[in-house]
């Protein structure tokens, strides 16, 4: 039985640094090892595909959510434990978020940033208290954290904004952080 569900937002591309794929694969395996269900964007490409294949290969449960207009672009992975098709990207994010206990953001592009900022904003305005983690593979999210600090320092957000995001530099650190946050 699955103890917790972890929503993973990440790139539909592999990125240039092989460490991104390595960490996505290691995290997918760790999810299965902990009996945590992977909730993700249902793609079979980039980091999305890597985390899902690793979770599946390790016997983990997978829950994928794909808007119908991205099925071909992200190569919809239909051999998941659960597979949901939505009409819009917004609906995709909502279904993913509603079916998780925590959010993890691996390296990614504009889509991953959109997903991150949406759940961070929801947290900031009190719509949820789910933990949000960034896997900071080789410093990938350092500039994002500097931007958040800049927003706070320039008076556009309260200092608590920083407290809503936990940064882990390694997969082991991420798993330890999730264990602490989920109890």
Please tell me about this protein's structure.
The protein is of the alpha/beta class and 183 residues long. It is built from seven helices and seven strands, in the order βαβαββαβαβααβα. It has helices spanning 18-33, 46-57, 89-98, 110-124, 142-153, 160-163, 171-182, and strands at residues 4-9, 36-40, 62-67, 82-86, 102-105, 132-135, 165-168. A seven-stranded parallel β-sheet has the order 4-3-2-1-5-6-7. Helix 4 links the parallel strand 5 and strand 6 (132-135). Helix 1 packs parallel to helix 2. It is globular. The model has no long low-confidence stretch (mean pLDDT 94).
What is the CA-CA span between the terminal residues? 16 Å
Task: Kindly report the average pLDDT value.
Answer: 94
Question: Major sheet, described briefly?
Answer: 7 strands, parallel
Helical amount among residues, as a percent range? 40-55%
Return Rg in Å. Answer: 15 Å
Question: What's the total number of strands?
Answer: 7
Q: Please trace the helix and strand order, writing H or E for each element.
A: EHEHEEHEHEHHEH
**How much beta, percentage-wise?**
15-25%
- The strands making up the biggest β-sheet line up spatially as 4-3-2-1-5-6-7
Low-pLDDT stretches = none
What are its keywords?
44% helix; 7 strands; single chain; alpha/beta; globular; 7-stranded parallel β-sheet; 183 residues
List the helices and strands and how they pair.
Blueprint: E1 4-9, H1 18-33, E2 36-40, H2 46-57, E3 62-67, E4 82-86, H3 89-98, E5 102-105, H4 110-124, E6 132-135, H5 142-153, H6 160-163, E7 165-168, H7 171-182
Parallel strand pairs: 1-2, 1-5, 2-3, 3-4, 5-6, 6-7
Helix pairs in contact: 1-2
């Amino acid at each position: 039985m699955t103890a917790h569900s972890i929503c993973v937002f990440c790139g539909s591309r592999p990125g240039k640094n092989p460490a991104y794929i390595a960490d996505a694969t290691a995290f997918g395996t760790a999810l299965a090892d902990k009996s945590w269900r992977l909730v993700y964007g249902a793609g079979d490409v980039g980091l999305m595909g890597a985390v899902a294949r690793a979770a599946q290969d390790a016997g983990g449960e997978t829950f994928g959510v794909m808007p119908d207009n991205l099925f071909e672009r992200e190569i919809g992975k239909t051999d998941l434990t659960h597979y949901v098709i939505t009409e819009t990207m917004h609906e995709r994010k909502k279904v993913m978020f509603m079916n998780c206990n925590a959010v993890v953001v691996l390296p990614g592009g504009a889509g991953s940033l959109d997903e991150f900022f949406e759940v961070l904003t929801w947290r900031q305005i009190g719509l949820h208290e789910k933990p949000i983690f960034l896997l900071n593979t080789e410093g990938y999210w350092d500039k994002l954290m500097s931007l958040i600090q800049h927003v706070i320092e320039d008076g556009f957000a309260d200092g608590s904004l920083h407290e809503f995001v936990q940064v882990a530099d390694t997969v082991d650190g991420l798993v330890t952080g999730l264990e602490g946050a989920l109890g």
